[in-house]
Amino acid sequence: MTRAEGAPAWGAIELELPRGHRGRPAVRTPRDETRPPRSDRAGRAGWGAGAGGRAQRLRAASGARQAVVKIIGYRKGRGQAGRTLDYVARRERIDMETSGGETLSTREDLQSLLDEWSATFSERADGRDVMHLMVSFPEGVAPETAREIARATLPEIAQGRDWAFAVHDDTGHAHVHALVRMRGPDGRQLRTTRDTLQRWREATARNARARGVALEASPRWARGRGEKGERFWERAMRARGETPRRHRDAARDAIAMLDRDGDATTRFERLIAATGKRERAALAALSWDLLAQARGASGEERARLLRLAEAAARHGEALPQARTRRQALAAIAEEMRARGKRVDPEGVAQALARERDAADRARDGPGRAPRAADSARRTSERPVEPPTPGHDGDQDALRRHAEWLAAREARRDRDRDPGREPD
Fold first, then answer.
1. DSSP string spanning 64-97?
2. Is the overall model pTM greater than 0.85, yes or no?
């Protein structure tokens, strides 16, 4: 096996482990503490196990970026699928590539694809006909490289079903928008779960490394992250200054638990802490193993092993203590009370959102910050809420309030539809 031309030093980290390296026995803790939380068992058997797991940990310790694969949403019917197809193709300004090897360049090409796919669309009102998927890459990855990675990964994702994709690079980093036909030739529907999404991330990272792009697909509990990510439409709501109901409900539950029990720690939080402790122990054991190997080596081999050992040790020391959303909300509520502030679900949820935004900006850098023009556009388009009508039978107030509600729902529908939302 040889490393691709121009690949980073850690891009083929499988070669970095010495021959015959077996490692130490795994550190064992009580059974109930070794099981990752139910929502994070995706890839549990594959990630972190055996020599492949050691290579994965070393890639993460060496600064490999995480593979980003997101399900933007599902489209029902010809209308929704057509709008998303137009968005991905940028109104025919970007060529799309299909699973059949065809290139779609014109409106007629897009309509032909839509005609073919819509023949098997479901008649159910809640059916899922097309999945809109996004695969994002770090800055510096060429669009053609992103295209090659997508071309190699989408067959694993679609599992014999039709797909089409295009590469966008208008945000400073290449990213792929893909559409997958949910129903296969055998009539079976594609099923998506957290496990399948993790497998797609692993496939993306593997195909990226084969093309010289150092990516990893470690689960969040292995990175010291306990909070789940936000949904697409929740980010859109927060960009408009609105708080998603799910966030308010979570804050209300955390405050109630804090009032009742004095803290917000449950068995789930204990499992999160145990898996983080296990990961730090595994990194420490890996560092010691590499140091032991270095004692019997010399020259460049010894220097390489020492660098790997130091990287594993530093990564384990820097691994943060994961906390769940419930713990984060409870901590904010306690801090607000200590300062004499009024504690309410809305305020607590907004405070956590500000913390998350600040952490994202610090991690991604200024190049990935939200564009001011988009925020200004959203602000200018936000309708002003009229006074809520009372019980005096004021028909004009009722009409104005109904119009405002309709405008708000239209904006939410627009934000859920990627065909009307910038990248």
1. PEEPEEEEEEEE-HHHHHHHHHHHHTTTTTS-EE
2. no
